[in-house]
Structures are given as C-alpha cells and as structure tokens.
Design brief:
Elements (H helix, E strand, L loop, with lengths): L3 H9 L8 E5 L4 E6 L4 H20 L2 H17 L1 H12 L3 H21 L7 E2 L7 E8 L2 E5 L7 H13 L2 E5 L5 H14 L6 E3 L5 H10 L3 E7 L2 H12 L4 E5 L4 E5 L5 H13 L9 E7 H16 L19 H16 L3 E4 L12 E6 L14 E7 L2 H8 L7 E5 L3 H10 L4 E4 L18 E2 L12 E8 L3
Parallel strand pairs: 5-6, 5-8, 6-7, 8-9, 10-11, 10-15, 11-14, 13-14, 15-16
Antiparallel strand pairs: 1-2, 3-4, 4-18, 9-17, 12-13
Helix pairs in contact: 1-4, 1-7, 3-5, 3-6, 3-7, 4-5, 4-7, 5-6, 8-9, 10-11
The chain binds succinic acid (SIN).
Length: 475
C-alpha cells in the first residue's frame, strides 16, 4: 500500500537549515518532521493563484465537484490507519481516538460532496404582474481558514469540504503544532484530482503574520476560524476593514448537569466521554459539572472509579485512553488551575498529579463553588470540577453564568424537564442524556462569545455562499 504516513513525513521534511518549522511529538518530546515556513510573498502568490483556480472550479457543474470530493473521501478512508498514526504522533491523542477523528473528518467530505448538488435558490411570488423574481446561490470566492491543533484533520475538512462543494477555493493555515495531518489530507485531495491551487496549506513561524494577510487581503472574501475567543475577536476586528464574511467557532465552558432522576451509570459514561476526549482539549468538553444533592455522592463515587481506570500514556501504545497535553504552556495552565482551585477551597477527589513530560493525571475536584475561578475558565485539560446544586432554577442561572455559549449537557429521565432545561440553556448545542454530540449532519456552533456561523449540516455550505437576487422585469 502507498503509505501516506511515511510519504508525508518524508515529503514535509525540509530540514532544520531551511527556516523550517519543527513538528514535535508531545508524548516523547522528539522532532518528527519539519514543514516549510512560507515567506509573505509566497502566501500572496498562493492567494493570486487561488483566485484564478476558484473561477475555473466554480464554473464546473456541481456534480463534477461532488465526484472529486467523493474520491477524496474514499482516499481518506482507505488511508485512515496511516492518517491516524500521523495524528497521534504530532498531536498526542490515543490512536483509537485519532482513527475516530479521521472517520469524523472524512464524514464532512462525504456529506458536503452530497450537499454540493443541493444549493437551491428560491422563486419568489412577485408583488407586480410584470416581474418574476428568483434567487441563486453563488460561492463567495477565495475562502481562508485558521485551524486548531486539537482536531488537526476534522477542523479542516469541516471547513474545506463545504467551501469546495460551494465552488470556493480554500487556503488554510493549520496549527504549527499539527501540520502533518493537514498536509497528508491535502496530498490525498490532490490524488483525488482536486486542483493544487484550489486547496492549499500555508504555514509561517508567525501565525499572526499569516492571520494578518488573511484578514487584510482584499481577494480573500471569507475567513473561518476555530480557536480562542480572544484571537477570534481580534480576527473579526481585522476583517472589518475589508468587510469580510467570517465564521467563528470559539471557546466554550460547557456545563454538564446531572439531575436527581438521571440514570447515574449513563451519566458517568457520558461524563467520561465528554470530559476526557482528547485529554479534555476540546471546545465542547464538559468544563464544569453540576450534580443534584440527592445523587451527588453516588455520582462522585462512580465517576472517581471510572476516572481511576483511565490509562494515561503515549497514545501510540495499545489501550492508552489519555495522551499528553499539547505543549508545556498547556500543562502549566492546567496544573495552575488545579492549584488555584485548591487554594480557593476545592478538594482533590482524584488525581491532581503532574505525571512528568506533558502528562497530567485525570483529576476530579469537589467542593467547588460558582464563584471560583475554575468555573469561569476554559480548562482545556483533564480536570473535572463538580458543584452541588438543589433547585432547577438556581441551576439554570449558574449554568448560563458564563460569557460562552457553545455546548451543554444534561441527564434526566423526565421529558418535561428535558424540554424546559434544553430551551433555557443559552448554548448553541445541548446534549440530553448524551456526552458526544458532534457529527456531520448536525449544525455545530455557538452563541454569545463562543462565536457565530454553523459547521456541518445543511447550514454549513451556506457559510461559503452568497445569495443573489434576480429580478426579471418588463414581462
Ligand atoms: C472542537 O473542540 O473545536 C471541536 C470538537 C468537535 O468537533 O466535536
């Protein structure tokens, strides 16, 4: 088999002398490859070529674009073992999770290959009898994205696939920590027949420099960003000068609520999946737990047992469930949040230890109160703070007491409660008796300072299209 893992690592390697960006395995602290740091003039060149390629691409029938996207999807699936290995080596997540992300990432390519054929406009009843009105949808043009290190494949395909399906070209700056996954799937897109100037990855030692070009270049008509609220807000300001369309998938502070009528075993399963996926480094991770009085002790005991059973280690080794954090800054932050919570009165119910390297023991903190800093902080690590509550109304106020509004979760077996709570939570996504809510058919996105725009689902392609209104007169 044509081994994408080896090919990518070799192709991407340009050697430390060439102003290259080193890619480091967070589990072993060793360099696994290098990628080129492009000059500013190279990035401008990429945008020029991308503009030409976009016009040709948009002129092709949707069915042709769909066919190439389908082939790309098939190649990603065929190479999923190699792609997963690359991801684990550069990002740290366990191999089974990496494989899951490749399948998840591929699902967006498949979904939008289908949606390419369904970008319908409307016919509109005219207000006068001598006119006929209709709308068509057209691609916005050259689209760009800045994508994060926590999902090095899926956060690219979730944006690139709808952009290409819509008829846009697509330029991405993948995170400098995890570019090999990005280069590998791009190589597969080229093998599928997607033109090289249409889908391009660009990196520079300075992410800010690339962001400045993306935001200021007049030919880039759309910027999609997944990352922190702080950076997202800065990018929105920068894009204002050239009035670009933007989609922002920003920070989260997901409450995970366990009501007194919940199935506690299911709630524990959901809590493990939601909190410890990718070692807690996801925007939709459960970030703070609210557990009702009468089931509090039962939930905490079972949760501690489940967390104690998690295997921490190098994700490439069989059976490992929690990998390293991405870098030393991430680890310092997470350990700092634990220390600060303890100083403010929290009890460590399990974990809390620095395990050396970039590994942090999965941790459960109890005696947490709403006023503690950790409740308002996006932890981005394997730490679960638990707050006790008694009344539903008090709970809703606390759950909504955050600047963020991305994901939220709750467990109950009462239908009435399920509807009321779901409607009152000020979040873009709600998991009800479910800890994993992301998939290609559902609209992913937030409210408040978690951003705007939706990815995946039937809405995802509209982020890359403009509506044009046609008025036929003199009829
Ligand atoms: C993210 O954390 O940014 C994405 C997580 C997901 O797609 O489930």
């Amino acid at each position: 088999m044509d081994c994408i893992a080896n090919k990518t690592l070799l192709n991407a390697t340009c050697g430390p002398d060439d102003d290259a960006i080193a890619v480091i395995n967070p589990a072993t602290d060793t360099v696994i490859g290098y990628i080129p740091s492009l000059q500013t003039s190279d990035i401008h060149d990429v945008i020029e070529k991308s503009k030409v390629a976009q016009k040709l691409w948009a002129a092709r029938p949707a069915a042709e674009r769909a066919k190439l996207l389908t082939r790309w999807y098939e190649l990603v699936i065929e190479n999923s073992d190699d792609l997963a290995r690359i991801m684990t080596l550069e990002q740290g997540k366990p191999l089974t999770e990496a494989k899951g992300e490749i399948i998840y990432g591929a699902s967006f390519i498949q979904w939008f290959s289908e949606e390419a054929k369904r970008t319908y406009g409307d016919t509109i009843p005219a207000p006068t009898d001598n006119k006929r009105l209709m709308t068509i949808k057209q691609p916005v043009g050259v689209a760009a994205a800045i994508t994060p290190w926590n999902f090095p494949t899926a956060m690219i395909t979730r944006k690139a696939a709808p952009a290409l399906a819509a008829g846009c070209s697509f330029i991405t700056k993948p995170a400098n920590q995890t570019p090999l996954s990005a280069y590998a799937i791009t190589e597969l897109a080229y093998q599928a027949g997607i033109p090289q100037d249409l889908l391009v990855m660009v990196n520079n030692h300075s992410s800010v420099a690339v962001g400045d070009i993306f935001c200021s270049h007049p030919d880039i008509r759309k910027l999609s960003f997944t990352g922190s609220t702080q950076v997202g807000s800065q990018l929105i300001k920068q894009c204002a000068d050239s009035v670009k369309r933007t989609s922002m998938e920003l920070g989260g502070n997901a409450p995970f609520i366990v009501f007194d009528d919940a199935d506690i075993d299911e709630a524990v399963k959901g809590a493990i999946a939601s909190k410890f996926r990718n070692a807690g480094q996801t925007c939709v991770c459960a970030n703070r737990f609210y557990v009702q009085d009468s089931v509090y002790d039962q939930f905490v005991d079972k949760f501690v047992d489940a967390v104690a059973a998690l295997k921490v280690g190098n994700g490439i080794e069989p059976g490992v469930q929690i990998g390293p954090l991405v870098d030393s800054k991430a680890k310092e932050n997470v350990l700092g949040y634990i220390t600060q919570a303890k100083e403010q009165g929290a009890t460590v119910a399990y974990g809390g230890e620095d395990l050396g390297g970039l590994f942090v023991q999965p941790t459960i903190l109890t005696d947490i109160t709403q006023d503690m800093d950790i409740v308002q902080t996006e932890i981005f690590g394997p730490v679960a703070p638990i707050i006790r509550f008694s009344e539903d109304d008090e709970l809703i106020t606390k759950a909504n007491d955050t600047i963020y509004g991305l994901a939220s979760y709750f467990y109950t077996r009462t239908l009435n409660r399920a509807f009321h709570i779901a409607e009152q939570l000020e979040f873009g996504m709600v998991g009800i008796n479910e800890g994993i809510i992301s998939n290609e058919v559902a609209p992913f996105g937030g409210v408040k300072q978690s951003g705007f725009g939706r990815e995946g689902a039937k809405q995802g392609i509209d982020e890359y299209m403009s509506i044009k209104y046609l008025c036929f007169g003199g009829l």
